[in-house]
Structures are given as structure tokens and as C-alpha cells.
Amino acid sequence: MSHTVNLTLDGLSCGHCVKRVKESLEKRPDVESAEVTITSAQVTGNASAEALIDTIKEAGYGAELSHPKADPLAESSIPSEALTAAPTSLPADSSFDDSQQLLIDGMSCASCVSRV
Description:
The protein is an alpha+beta fold. Helix content is 28%, strand content 21%. β2 (31-36) and β3 form a beta hairpin.
């Protein structure tokens, strides 16, 4: 009997990323269908959540089991710390002149490159 697994996705930044995850999921013989957006996936079939998460990670993205979001207990008029934090800047120091080269895997388009 098939069931539906809802996953929260991380690391997708464009339609190509969405297509890559959808195709990876639908290649599995235990997946009947997969509806994928940049932030979530709804997968129907017999696959376990763990197997689906592993498939998404193999495609180069993050995933975890979705949990229903609860409504806040009370609305607050006080802005969160993240919204009120003062901007920071790095000091102009000559020690930052050294450059490093990194090999990065999993970027499939200009949107992915710009995100990194």
C-alpha cells in the first residue's frame, strides 16, 4: 500500500535543482510520483522517508522529514533579534589578502553559482 511522505528541502535554488531532485526521486522503483518545489517535496509510493532523504542527498541537496508548523502562542510586537541586529563589517586587514581555491560539486547553473 502506498503512502505520502512530506519532506522539507534545502539547497535548491532554481528550476534545474527542482528538476534534478524530482527525476532522482522518480527513478526509484518504490516511488509512484513526486511533487517537488524549491522548499519541499511530496512523494507518493512505498519508499521510506530515510530512503527518500538519502536519494535527495545523493543528488546533492539536503532534506528532512517535514513536521507541521504550529501557530505561535502569541503575537509579539517586539522585533526579533535578527531584525534588530546591527550590521557588522570586517576590518580592513592585510591578512585577508591570501586567496584559497576550492573544488565545489553539485552546482548546475548560474543561480547555484551565485548562491555560493
